[in-house]
Amino acid sequence: MSSQTTTATGLDRFFSITQRGSTVAREVRGGLVTFVTMVYIVVLNPLIIGTVKDADGKFLGGGNGPALAAVAAVTALVACVMTIAMGILGRYPFALATGLGLNAFVAFQVASKMSWPAAMGMVVIEGLLITALVLTGFRVAVFRAIPAQLKSAIAVGIGLFIALIGLVDAGFVRAGAGTVVDIGVGGHLNGWPTLVFVVGVLLTAVLMARRVKGAILIGIAVSTVLAIIIEAVGNIGPQTDASGKLVNPEGWALNVPSFDGKKFGAPDFSLLGHFSLGGGFSAVGIVSGIVIIFSLVLSDFFDVMGTTIGLASEAELLDENGQLPNIQQVLLVDGLAAVAGGVAGASSATTYVESASGIGDGARTGLASVVTGLLFLVTIFLSPLAQFVPSEAAAPALVVVGVLMMRQIRNIDFNDFSLAVPAFLTIVLMPFTYSITNGVGAGFVSYVVLQVAVGRRRSIHPLMWAVAAFFALYFAIEPLKTLFGIS
Q: What is the pTM of this model?
């Protein structure tokens, strides 16, 4: 009995569980919720980078066919190792995995110009540069230089962004024929999977309103059971066939909630170590190589910074000065995750905005991340379990968390137009452009311009000037490449 008490006390002290107003049970539950809402990456990343050919006409891994199993294995491995590292070193409920957006950029804009090992080498170099910026203190200094109201705007923008991700993942919002987006299929909420999503949102909202503990996890579990029953009775099937062609608009968007065709087996780690640090520069030249790495670094640098601010704000982990204690270790783990992603052949890994789902369910410490990481460890060997929960059942959690993060908008002074415009651009451009980096960049640039315009030049932190200049260069990168003839 004494030993158990000592162990519990040591666990509590290490992760500051009681100090942050949490419990072990809440952390475990939050870690499970985060895992369920982001495990889709184990399925989705192989479909993005495992099915694309490089400049030599080869698939990732050098084979003549898609390397889906191998990509799934290393994706889960990197998520496992780096999320546990975040829990133990950073001690915050932030989970990491292959970054969406970055993986598409690597697949379609980097690998198309070089071999896959060279493309992964570019990712490793990007991660090493990000890590160096953390070790020199530059990344932390930039984090601390961001004005409080912009931090709140970033949190709100991320809330809208992850809500949109949930709506899109569930097929509730889709590309329309004559519009940018549309509701469901042809403007109508058709299909049983859509019903699962709607039930999930309403059920989770009701449970949250009634302050039921574990509301988000209960919503996911009930929605999953409903999905399994519907699939068993109706045999709905997936939206797309094996080649990715749309065959059933009313089918399941990503995972079919059934064990049919999902076989267990030993993980394929053949992609580990398949990278070349100098291959990218040999393929595209020094200047083009630098442009590629600059784009990767800038996107990763501020995407993560925006995500971290948003998650910390929602978890109420920022101190009285709006800073996140122990931020150095958090950013260091994130930088090393980018390196690990390249070394493993899984593309750059980064802090996941879906961590907000676990935070919304009460997670406040690194113990939740350790739980999430251990679940990814299980996923390495039991990949069918990762495909068991359909996105329509997990997506409601993202929508509800988006509602929770909107609360940060109360900290923004919309009566001051010089602050309202940067905050507004930050908030709306994240979901509208499907990019956290674009929202942060527009907010930073407009903030500097407007503060100068109203005579508050001295209130601008020197690093904000530098960051705004970098973003101006980032937004103008394509015209500049055209001007100087860079391909």
A: 0.74
What is the rounded CA–CA span in Å between residue 29 and residue 351?
19
CA pair distance 333, 86, nearest whole angstrom: 6
| 10-residue stretch averages of pLDDT, the chain, 487 residues long | 53 93 95 89 78 84 73 94 97 93 80 92 96 91 86 86 84 68 67 92 93 81 91 87 76 78 74 93 87 81 84 90 89 96 95 92 96 94 66 84 85 93 94 84 94 94 90 84 74
CB–CB of 91/365 below 8 Å? yes
Whole-number Å distance between alpha carbons of 53 and 49 = 8
Do residues 468 and 447 touch, judged by C-beta distance below 8 A?
yes
- Please give the tally of structural domains in the chain: 1
Question: How long is the chain?
Answer: 487
Helix (H) or strand (E) holding 182: strand 182-183
In this structure, what token pair is assigned to residue 231? 């699939």
Q: Which domain holds residue 80?
A: 2-483
Phi-psi category of residue 98: left, alpha or beta, with phi > 0 → left and psi -120 to 50 → alpha: beta
CA–CA separation, 192 vs 174, rounded Å?
Answer: 16
Q: Which of 89, 88, 50 is nearest to 71 (CA)?
A: 50
How far from 278 is each of 114, 192, 345, CA to CA, in Å? 11, 50, 16
Structure-token pair, residue 120: 């992964």
Give the C-alpha distances (Å, rounded to integers) separating 244 from 85, 100, 253, 260.
35, 18, 11, 19
The string of pLDDT tens digits covering residues 341-393 is: 999 999 999 999 889 999 999 999 999 999 999 999 998 887 555 557 788 88
- Over the range 371-399, which residues count as b (16 or more CB within 10 Å of their CB) and which as e? bbbbbbbebbebbbbbbbbbbbbbbbbbb
DSSP state of 111: G
Neighbours of 401 (CB within 10 A): 30
- Pure H helices in 382-416: 383-386, 391-405
Q: How far apart, in whole angstroms, are the C-alpha atoms of residue 149 and residue 155?
A: 10
Question: Residue 344 corresponds to which tokens in the numbers above?
Answer: 């493993």
